[in-house]
Amino acid sequence: MKESPASELTYPREREAGIALRDGTTVHVRPIRVKDRDPVRVFLVGLSPDSIGFRFFGSPNVEWAIRWSLDVDYADRFGLVAVTGDPPTVIAHAAYVRMNEHKAEVAFVVADAWQERGISTILLAHLAEVADRHGIATFFARDLTSGRSHQRYECREPSVHGGLIGGATESRSEPRCR
Fold first, then answer.
1. Which residues constitute the domain of residue 94?
2. What is the DSSP letter of 46?
3. HSE-CB for 145 with a 13 A CA cutoff
């Protein structure tokens, strides 16, 4: 896998946002950066075997997973992290990778202690906004339980529709119904 020179790319600072979760806790969501290598390593190593297995369909080589997470160009490959604390600690990662002109695969992982607070939904909404700006109309994700790909085609205006089906997050971001 070729790593994008993310340090040489224009960092999309406008995508940074403070977000209130369902329980009132605030986290900071922002695009991933090359300098996140060590925090991402700590995050991935700290995941339970179930969480890492659900995200990567097994136990990946951690160095490979870090490289994959950091390999962004902020258009066809876009990654976000949710961070909290001082110094900031990565508590979630989400990314999409364009598969063709209008379709991208999407993936999420949230630290075990932070699950069930709405972080994935927030990250999905942010990814959908970015994807829409780059001409991506459909997200799909692989279903861990069946190994199949799923898509849900829904119109949105202006919100994002998405959910969990058979363990796979899926959504379609589309500016208007067809």
1. 6-172
2. H
3. 7
Is 0.70 topped by the overall pTM? Answer: yes
Backbone angles phi, psi at 60, to 5 degrees: -80, 165
N-terminal to C-terminal alpha carbon distance within the chain: 37
Residue 27, number of CB atoms within 10 A of its CB = 21
Tokens 């110094």 sit at which residue?
A: 87
Assign 120 to helix, strand or coil: helix
Q: What is the mean pLDDT of each run of 10 residues along the chain (178 residues)?
A: 54 94 93 95 87 67 86 96 95 94 90 92 93 91 54 34 34 32
Within a domain: 148: yes
In a domain, 178, yes or no: no
Please give the torsion angle defined by the CA atoms of residues 85, 88, 94 and 100, in that order, rounded to the nearest 10 degrees. 150
